[in-house]
Amino acid sequence: MFRLIYEEDGTSRVFPIVKDEISLGRAPENDVVLTNFTISRLHAKIVKDLKGCRILDQSSRNGTQVNGQPVTVAPLRDGDGILLGKFPIRFSAVLDEKVVVDEKSGDLAPGTIIKPLSELLPSLGLEEKPASEPRKAADARPGQKMAEAHEDRGAKVLRILSRVAEALITTQPVEEVLRTVMDLVFSYLPAHRGFLMLYEPGTTQLVPKIVKYRHATKETGEISISRTIADRVVKDQVAILTSDAKMDDRFDGVQSIMLHNIRSAMYAPLWNKGHVIGIISVDSPIQAGAFTQADLELFSALANFSAVAIEQARLNVKIQEEQARRTRLERYFSPNVVNRITNAKDSTTGHLIDVQEREVTVLFSDLVGFTSMSEKMKPQEVARLLNEYFTEMLEIVFTYDGTLDKYIGDCVMVVFGAPFEQPDHADRAVKTAIEMRERLHEFNQNRSDGLRLRAHTGINSGKVMAGDIGSHKRKEYTVIGDTVNLAARLESDVAKADQIIIGPSTHDLLKGQYELKKLGKTAVRSIEKSLQLYEVLETKGKTEKTPAA
Question: How does DSSP assign 528-549, residue by residue?
Answer without folding.
Answer: SS-EEEEEEEEESSS--PPPP-
